[in-house]
């Protein structure tokens, strides 16, 4: 089944959804159709909207593009809380820097 993308619209369909009660997460595989390569944050927001969870509770693991196609395979994990996500998932140095920058911006806005 092929999805037809709009110009800037990202459409996705869930291929598989597997619950993992041992570590309180839902593992998702999805097929995304988009004209341009989707960013992890865009995919995270779309998944968060679909499953009604905060973006902080999920992690997009991979985005694989198919050569010559506008379809991308997405792999993501949804956790029940941010604390559980942080306990299970390894956080890269780049992600730590982004999180610290966002906290700095929030603290400046609060002042």
The H/E string reads EEHEEHH
* Class by SSE composition: alpha+beta
Helical residues, percent: 25-40%
Whole-number total of structural domains? 1
Offer a concise description of the structure.
This protein is an alpha+beta fold and 111 residues long. The chain has a single domain, classed as Alpha-Beta Plaits.
What would you say this structure looks like, in words?
The protein has 111 residues and is of the alpha+beta class. It has one domain (11-110): Alpha-Beta Plaits. Helix content is 33%, strand content 32%. It is built from three helices and four strands; from the N terminus they run ββαββαα. The protein has helices at residues 40-51, 82-88, 93-110, and strands spanning 11-20, 25-33, 58-65, 71-79. The chain has a four-stranded antiparallel sheet. A hairpin with a 5-residue loop joins β3 (58-65) and β4. The longest helix is centred in the C-terminal third of the chain and has 18 residues, at 93-110. It is globular. The protein starts with 10 loop residues before the first strand and ends with a helix. The mean pLDDT is 83.
């Amino acid at each position: 089944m092929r999805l037809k993308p709009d110009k800037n619209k990202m459409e996705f369909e869930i291929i598989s959804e597997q619950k993992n009660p041992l570590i309180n997460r839902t593992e998702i595989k999805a097929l995304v159709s988009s004209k341009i390569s989707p960013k992890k944050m865009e995919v995270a927001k779309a998944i968060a909207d679909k499953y009604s969870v905060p973006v902080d509770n999920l992690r997009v693991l991979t985005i694989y593009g198919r050569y010559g196609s506008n379809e991308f395979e997405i792999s993501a994990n949804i956790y029940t809380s941010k604390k559980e996500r942080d306990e299970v998932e390894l956080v890269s140095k780049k992600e730590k820097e982004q999180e610290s920058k966002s906290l700095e911006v929030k603290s400046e806005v609060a002042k």
